[in-house]
Design a protein that fits this description.
This protein has 114 residues and is α+β, with helices and mostly antiparallel strands. It is built from five helices and four strands, in the order αβααβαββα.
Length: 114
């Protein structure tokens, strides 16, 4: 990460980079995992700096793709095999299957906070 990024932004982006393909974390999950900030702060970081990381893996809690970026996000979800369903004619993430808890298996899962 760049030394020019605020420290909190760097931490948020590092979490986004750790989310495995086909999985997601909500803005609130990221804040909880970090133990700092909240969903709005994470959303702000992603809006300002998220283009350099897999931004489509940090999502709204309702499972709807980010407004204005739906088509690009859906392309990524389909390519990665992220669980999706149709709801009222629009695709949504199946959060109970797609949500990642922060464990990657390489470190024994000690870092899972949610």
């Amino acid at each position: 990460m760049s030394a020019e990024l605020p420290e909190y932004a760097e931490r948020v982006l590092e979490v986004a980079e750790r989310i495995p393909p086909g999985r997601v974390m909500t803005y609130g999950d990221v804040a909880e995992w970090l133990g700092a900030g909240g969903p709005r702060q994470v959303g702000r970081v992603m809006a300002l700096y998220g283009g350099a990381v897999p931004w489509w893996r940090v999502v709204r809690a309702d499972g709807r793709p980010l407004p204005g970026s739906e088509h690009r996000a859906l392309e990524h979800y389909r390519a990665e095999g992220t669980p999706l369903r149709e709801s009222a004619g629009e695709p949504r993430l199946v959060m109970r299957r797609a949500r990642w808890d922060g464990r990657d298996g390489r470190d024994g899962g000690d870092e899972a906070h949610i």
